[in-house]
Design goal:
With 303 residues, the protein is α/β, with parallel strands linked by helices. It folds into 2 domains: 138 residues, ATPase, nucleotide binding domain (Nucleotidyltransferase, domain 5, 2-Layer Sandwich), CATH 3.30.420.40; 149 residues, ATPase, nucleotide binding domain (Nucleotidyltransferase, domain 5, 2-Layer Sandwich). It is built from 12 helices and 10 strands. The strands form 2 sheets. A 6-stranded mixed sheet has the order 3-2-1-4-5-10.
Length: 303
Amino acid sequence: MAEYFFVGIDGGASSCRARLRDMEGTLLGEGSGGPANIHLDLDLAKESIRIATRAAIRAAGLDERILHRVHAGLGLAGAGLKTTCEQLRAGLTSFASTVVSTDAYIAWLGAHRGGNGGIVILGTGSCGLAVVDDRRIDVGGWGAEISDEAGGQRMGREALRRSLWTFDGRAERTKFSDLILDRYARDPAKIVAFAAKATPAQYAEFAPLVFEYASRGDRLAVELVRETAEAAARIIDRLAVGGASAISLIGGLAEPLTPWLPAQAHRVLVPPQSDPLDGAILMARRALDSRREAPEALSISAA
């Protein structure tokens, strides 16, 4: 059995994924868990990370007792807040070591293997990150309340909001708005009740419907997709102006949104070299190498 292992975690507002590799880089197993945005719900994120990791270990045919030999790289939504990251690491003591950074950082590491370039995450939320000659550029990702305009949460929330406009007679009805209203028995109170408790993931579940009806030419759905594409293009433009000549799109909305992007954005888009999970594993490897070079370094650190 390997001396030690690496697990990469990619956690967002909708789900958490884990990938286990041995010290030679061989893929051993993968697993998944629930939401892992540590800003929104730290306890839920910790549990999702544990579930996804255990699932990856089981998929590898290994026993959970190997956890003390697993070096973990965690790329999580909401990890921009230092205090929250410290609380997370304090609650994950089973790993041999833990390094935490944002989901954007591991996406960049995976996409460009640590080289010059940028990424734009288009998932439940949205943000951009580029590194150009060791200079880092961060764009957005401040949460759906005040940011994340190119994410599925915003798209779903606006679908509900604007369907209510049609109910009020403030906007023209469309087949898509009728579909949304029918889902709630044309009762605004039911939409309000849903919105009062809706999670980012629940809002984002409307995104596939938006794209489906946009492909049919529905006016409201097209409007929502175009606005999301415009928001994504602004992130791309900012990274490009900052010097990123190669930018990769990451996340569940990346593929369906790409055809809606302007030609200018397409000129800098490139496929990622690898995915965020391998970026998280690379982060864990780098952290371990750094600790070996400086034995006095903390066994648990943050990127």
